[in-house]
Amino acid sequence: GSKKVTMQRVRKAVLPVAGLGTRFLPATKAMPKEMLTVVDRPVIQHAVQEALASGIEQLIFVTGRGKTAIEDHFDHAFELEATLQARGKHDALETVEATNFPPGTIAYVRQQEPLGLGHAVWCARHVIGDEPFAVLLPDDIILGDEPCLAQLLEVYDRLDAPGANLIGVEAVEPELTRKFGVLDIDRWDADGTSFSAKGIVEKPEPEVAPSNMAVFGRYILDPSVLRHLDRQEKGTGGEIQLTDAIDASIRDGVLTYGHLCEGQRFDCGSKTGFVLANVAYALQDPELGPGLLPAIKALIED
Ligand code: UTP
User: Fold this and answer.
1) Is the CB–ligand 1 distance for residue 141 below 6 Å?
2) 121 lines ligand 1 (CB under 6 A)
3) Which helix (H) or strand (E) holds 45?
C-alpha cells in the first residue's frame, strides 16, 4: 500500500555570513559586517534570536576569513562575566549570558571563497543532511509582533506538503526587481497572502520581471535543492545562485510557494537600510524612544 509521507519538522537553520561586506568599507575592513550594531546588538544577533524564537534548534553558520568575532560573540566571555559577577552588575551579566547557548546549538562551516549565496548554503550540506531547513540572511532584520521565520513555519505546517519549498516575499516597486530574486506566480491562495510559484529569477530587469514579489532573506527549503547546487553552476554576476537551484527544483516538480510576511523589513546590507533599522529599533525601545523622538524631530526641522 502507499505510505503517507509525513511532514518533517524544520530544526536547522543556515545563516550565511561569508560575504565580504564591501558596501560598508572601511567599517568592515577588520570587522565582519554582521557585527555592526543595530542599537545595542550586532545585526547577526537579531537573526539568531528570530530563529531560536521560531523554534529552530540548530544554527549552521557559514563563515569565512576574518569572521571570528562572530564566533566569539556567541561564546562564553569568561573574564567579562567574572568581572561583572564580582562587581554585582547582574543586568549586564544577564545580557551577556543571553548570547551564549547550550553546547552544540551553533555549528560553523567555512566557505573558503565567496562564490555566491548558493555555494555558501551548499557548504553546509553535510550538516544539513536530509531534512528540510531554513535559511536566514542576517542582513535582513524584521521588526514586528511575530518573528518572521515563525510566520513562515506556520504557513509551512499548514501547507502540509512534504518536500515543498516556502519563501518569504515582499511586494517591491517594479523598478526595484533588479535587486532581488523574483518569483513567477502560478496562483494565489484564497486569503491573498501566499501563492504557488512556477519559477524564480535572480535580479531581473523590470521589463522582464515575472512579478514584483521579491525574495528577501527567509527561506524554508527541501534538501533536494542541494543536489542542484552540486553542479556548481554560475549564474547572475558570475555567482553560484541559490535562486537558480530553486528554479531548477521547481522545474523538477518541487512545489514552491511564496508568502507575504508581516513586519517591517530593513536591509542592513545597505547603508540606508542599516541607518533606518537603527532609528526604528531605537524609537520602539521604551528607554530610548521617548528621548530620541523629539531629538530626531528637531534634527529634521533644523
Ligand atoms: P551580499 O550580496 O549582501 O554580499 O550577500 P556581501 O558580500 O555580504 O556584501 P557586499 O555586497 O559586498 O556589501 C548576501 C548574503 O549572502 C552571504 C552574505 O554573507 C550575506 O549574508 N554570502 C554571499 C555568503 O555567505 N557567501 C557568498 O559567497 C556570498
Assistant:
1) no
2) no
3) helix 43-53
| Grid cell locating 246 | 530553486
For residue 165, list its beta bridge partners.
Answer: 256
Distance 17 CA to ligand 1 centre (A): 7
Cα 159 to Cα 166: distance, rounded to the nearest angstrom: 9
Question: What is the CB-side half-sphere exposure of residue 122 using CA atoms within 13 A?
Answer: 25
d(CA 117, ligand 1 centre) in Å? 7
Pocket flag, ligand 1, residue 17 (CB < 6 Å)? yes
Per-residue pLDDT for 4 more than 70?
no
How long, in residues, is the chain?
Answer: 302
**What is the C-alpha separation between 133 and 228, in angstroms, rounded?**
16
Q: What is the pLDDT of residue 5?
A: 74
pLDDT digits (tens, 9 = 90+) for 109-155: 999 999 999 999 999 999 999 999 999 999 999 999 999 999 999 99
